[in-house]
């Protein structure tokens, strides 16, 4: 089952940006997916003043940054590494801070509030499903 079919069958907030699945950055990270791993949600925002695509799968979170000089940089974090997720809202703009158990955190800035809420919810749902799997 491909990612578009999978997204249409799961019980999450609707992923309403399927065009992100066609972006070059997604194609670069898709080759790292496990055979039974599916994309759940994708957002584009700013981390440390650089544009990033942040991709949530049913097993991991990927951050993909696009640097013109050096190409894309891909980082991955297992769901088991997540310690907390915090949503900060100022009107229509929000940020989402993801805290990891090893003390690392990243803050995704300049998201539309509804997109940040959806992505935060989906992270929480995937984390809960991950814990229930054990």
Can you give me a brief rundown of this structure?
26% of the residues lie in helices and 43% in strands. The strands form two sheets. Strands 1-2-3-4 form a four-stranded antiparallel sheet. It has a three-stranded antiparallel sheet with strand order 5-6-7, covered by helices on one side. This is YokE-like PH domain-containing protein.
Describe the structure.
The chain has a single domain (3-132), classed as PH-domain like. Helix content is 26%, strand content 43%. The protein has helices at residues 3-9, 24-30, 113-133; strands spanning 39-47, 50-57, 60-67, 71-78, 82-90, 93-100, 105-112. The chain is globular, with a radius of gyration of 14 Å. The longest helix is centred in the C-terminal third of the chain and has 21 residues, at 113-133. By secondary structure, it is α+β, with helices and mostly antiparallel strands. Strands 1-2-3-4 form a four-stranded antiparallel beta sheet. The protein has a three-stranded antiparallel beta sheet with strand order 5-6-7, with helices on one face. A hairpin with a 2-residue loop joins strand 2 and strand 3 (60-67). It has three helices and seven strands.
């Amino acid at each position: 089952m491909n990612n578009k079919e999978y997204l249409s069958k799961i019980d999450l907030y609707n992923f309403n940006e399927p065009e992100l699945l066609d972006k070059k950055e997604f194609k670069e990270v898709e080759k790292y997916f496990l055979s039974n791993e599916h994309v759940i949600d994708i957002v584009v925002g700013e981390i440390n003043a650089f544009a990033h695509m942040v991709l949530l799968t049913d097993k991991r979170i990927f951050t993909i940054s696009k640097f013109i000089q050096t190409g894309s940089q891909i980082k991955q974090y297992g769901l088991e590494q997540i310690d907390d997720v915090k949503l900060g809202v100022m009107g229509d703009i929000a940020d989402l801070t993801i805290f990891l158990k090893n003390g690392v955190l990243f803050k995704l800035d300049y998201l539309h509030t509804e997109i940040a809420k959806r992505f935060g919810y989906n992270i929480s749902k995937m984390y809960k499903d991950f814990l229930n799997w054990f």
